[in-house]
Design goal:
By secondary structure, the chain is α+β, with helices and mostly antiparallel strands. It is built from 13 helices and ten strands. The two termini are 14 Å apart.
């Protein structure tokens, strides 16, 4: 049962940022046992508006790779070079599919030029020149975009289909969701443009958490480029998701319940097992499965973007600019929150993510 008072508190917390002028729009949804119970849109949007999810798209791509592996098309423990031959150059021949899924491949900052983004043959050729920055498998460093381009091309190689089509057919459609990647230019009229808001954290704010700068911060310039129609149509697999909060909450509910056999049982089980425990830049164990970030039971769930009080089994994946998506099986609860206001203060954005997730958790009791 949904706690109505908790729902009102969640709405008020979301409204505070919109009414203050901090965020131009925000949209969120709460699902309980796979059914949408709350759906709200505040500011310059409706519940039908689609938002950029950024990295919250990653689990859908990762799960597609895991499903293909479960079909026997390749092995997660096998080298990527056995699937994409060009990737094996420059000392990358032993990097496994699993390591790429777990952000331990060692190429976090590898990049692609526009012509390589648009032409798969040129992209595959570009992989040959990518260099590793540290020994693959030795540590964890978030790969914002590079790893999921490799995963996308593995999907295409294994299926013979465009990766966005395969993800849509295997992950979105069975869960009753629309296409989240590679949105045609003539179908983008309902997508909210993103814009920078707020101010960067002051030196004092950074010093208070022991930092001179925030490692791995993604620039506003890179995030707002996703407003370009051609890039939305491309469907960047590691950060180009476009969806509504209702759909994302429903999708997390479907994964949580494995509705209609969305995932093979072995894939569903693997997605809930921590495979990456190396620490991130904050010193917090990453607690990543091959698809999600798990809250864990070490008291550091909030450092991983989950709310205070999340059960150890809670799983999810956020996105740049404060996008939120997760499910908590102990509550039967799923939550998604999107905004088109990209807070220039990453510390404030992280605090908002935890605050909203904490209030969303209060909307349903934990099952004992």
């Amino acid at each position: 049962m949904i706690d109505k008072r908790a729902v009102e508190a969640l709405i008020e917390r979301v409204r505070r940022d919109v009414d203050s002028g901090m965020l131009p729009a925000a949209q969120f949804a709460v699902a309980l046992n796979g059914e949408i119970m709350v759906s709200e849109a505040l500011g310059d949007c409706t519940t039908a508006t689609r938002f950029h999810t950024y990295s919250a798209i990653k689990p859908a791509v990762s799960l597609t790779v895991m499903e293909l592996a479960a079909e026997g098309l390749f092995d997660l423990a096998a080298p990527v070079s056995g699937i994409l031959g060009s990737f094996g150059s420059a000392g990358k021949q032993d990097i496994t599919v699993s390591q790429v899924l777990l952000h331990s491949g060692g190429f976090p900052n590898a990049s692609l030029e526009r012509h390589e983004l648009l032409d798969r043959a040129e992209r595959l050729a570009a992989y040959a020149s990518w260099q590793t920055e540290w020994q693959p498998g030795a540590c964890y460093e978030y790969h914002p975009l590079s790893a999921h381009w490799v995963l996308a091309d593995i999907i295409t190689e294994a299926t013979g289909s465009h990766f966005a089509d395969a993800v849509t057919q295997r992950m979105m459609e069975p869960a009753g969701c629309s296409r989240w990647l590679a949105i045609a230019e003539d179908q983008q009229s309902d997508v909210a443009d993103v814009t920078g808001v707020g101010t960067a954290p002051s030196r004092a704010e950074l010093a208070a958490v022991g930092l001179d700068e925030i490692p791995g911060a993604i620039s506003e310039e890179l995030l707002t480029v996703f407003n370009l129609p051609w890039l939305r149509a491309l469907g960047v697999p590691g950060g180009g998701g476009i969806a509504r909060a209702e759909e994302m909450a429903l999708w997390y509910g479907a994964v949580m319940l494995n509705s209609d056999g969305l995932l093979r049982p072995e894939v569903r089980s693997d997605a809930m097992v921590v495979r990456q425990s190396h620490p991130d830049w904050t010193g917090t164990p990453a607690n990543r499965s091959h698809a999600f970030v798990l809250a864990g039971d070490d008291g550091r769930a909030a450092m991983r973007g989950h709310g205070h009080g999340a059960s150890a089994e809670a799983f999810g994946h956020g996105g740049a600019g404060g996008q939120i998506a997760w499910a908590d099986p102990r509550r039967g609860l799923a939550f998604a929150y999107f905004t088109n206001g990209l807070d220039r203060n990453d510390l404030a954005s992280a605090r908002r993510r935890v605050a909203l997730s904490t209030k969303a958790l209060a909307c349903a009791r934990m099952n004992t």
